[in-house]
Write a structure and sequence with these properties.
This protein has 11 helices and 10 strands. The chain is of the alpha/beta class and 274 residues long. α1 crosses α4 and α2 crosses α4. The N and C termini lie far apart (57 Å).
Length: 274
Amino acid sequence: MSINNSDFDYVRTLVQRHSAVVLEPDKQYMVELRLMTLAQKEGFTSPQELLNRLRAQPHSPLDRKVIDSMMTNETMFFRDTGFFEVLKKAVIPQLIAKRAGEKRLTFWCAACSSGQEPYSIIMMLHEHFPEIRDWTLRFIASDISSEILQRAREGLFNQLEINRGLPVQLLLKYFRKVGSAWSIRADIQKMVEFRELNLTKPWPLLPEMDIIFLRNVLIYFEVETKKQVLGRTKRLLRPDGYLFVGGAETTINLEASFHPVLFDKTVYYRLQPQ
């Protein structure tokens, strides 16, 4: 059951107004499929019936459910091996040397989806940097979707999610079987503070960060929104901290305070010296 152009524009406007995510014109089929899934879940007979309710009762909880359903929660364990190699070979060793006196590191995974990114980073630190086991490590992970955050907090992953990027030796070491799913070890799970946060709205009070992971989210925003998000990001990053964005993203021509650093074909960003 397809939706018409007017319905598609209504959903696009709703999503952009609340999340700044731009649904391109070629995404109408995707929107139809996601509305169909949500309609079945919420007890509507069709996407059209759901949209009729949405128009009749604006600002209802259904608004939020539609917006959440349109978010692209694409993620996987150890996504982009080059990124993890840069962390392992360059960034984390540099930070350990810089923070040896403090013995404290703070990380933020923005747009964390169902949690694979922060959990992967913690497993990497456990595997390769035992010297910081007694440090204070703070991981904040945020996302706009309350539903996906609840999944991330549970730390429970189905077999398909496990198969996407997680080496078997880490599966056996850090997960336990729960029915047909896998649960991450409680000590790893408890290390992450999951928070609901809309990057395009006022941010809550956050600590200064040593590393900010803003990967694969800027691509969904218009240029002015990207500039606003990066402008806030620079104020939150420690002067000698590090920023990572996705492989198809950049800060160039968006925020002059950042300069790119190339390491093993992967780019990360530092703040320009004052």
